[in-house]
Amino acid sequence: MLALRAPGVLGLQGLTLVAGGAALCLLAAGRRPEELGLGRSHLGGRLLGGAALAAVLLLPAAARWGGGPGLAPALGVAAVAVSVGEEVAFRGVLFAALEEAYGPAAAVLGSTAAWTLAHVLSHPAPFLPAVTAAGLLLAAWRWAARDLVGPIVGHVLADVAL
C-alpha cells in the first residue's frame, strides 16, 4: 500500500482512505454474497487460501527486503479498509458483472485492467507490472475457486505487511 507510505498520511488523509474503502464496499449493495464469492461454505479453506495468496504476493518483496519499518499501526485500519474495498469493487462487483455479461476470461482480464488503471496515480510506473500480476493472481483465484474471501485475506495481509 504505497499510498500510505507518503509523508503526512496520518489524520484526515487516513480517515479519507478508510471512507474510500467503505465507499467501494457500497458498490456491492443489492448483490447476493454468493454472487460476489462471499458465501459461507468451506470458510477455513478459503481463509487458508488467502494466507497462501498473501505469501505469493509477498515473495518479490521478501526476496529484496533489506529490513526497515513496516506500516505504521495507525494506518493499519486504513490499509484494511482500502484492501477490502478494492477487492469487493474489482473482484467482487466488477468481476461478477463482467463474467455475467461476457464470460470468465473477460472477468479476469477486465477486472485486472481496471485494477491496474486504478493504481496508476498511487504507484510509480515501474511498479505497475507487479500490480497487474497481483491483479491477475487474485482474479484467477476468484474465478477458479469462485471465492472472494481468499483474495480479500491475501490482499489485506500483503498490504499490511508492505
Question: What this model shows, in words?
Answer:
The structure is a single chain. With 162 residues, the chain is mainly α. Residues 1-5 have low confidence and may be disordered. Helix 1 (12-26) runs parallel beside helix 3, helix 2 runs parallel beside helix 6 (149-161) and helix 4 runs antiparallel to helix 5 (128-145). It contains six helices and no strands. The protein has one domain (8-64, 72-161). It has helices spanning 12-26, 43-64, 76-102, 104-118, 128-145, 149-161.
Indicate the low-confidence ranges by residue numbers: 1-5
* Largest beta-sheet characterization: none
Helix share bin: 55-70%
Number of helices: 6
User: How much strand?
Assistant: under 5%
Which SSEs are present, and which pair or pack?
Layout: H1 12-26, H2 43-64, H3 76-102, H4 104-118, H5 128-145, H6 149-161
Helix pairs in contact: 1-3, 2-6, 3-4, 3-6, 4-5, 5-6
Provide a concise account of the structure shown:
With 162 residues, the protein is mainly α. It is built from six helices and no strands. The protein is globular and about 40 Å long.
Q: How would you describe this structure in keywords?
A:
162 residues, mainly alpha, 68% helix, globular, disordered N terminus
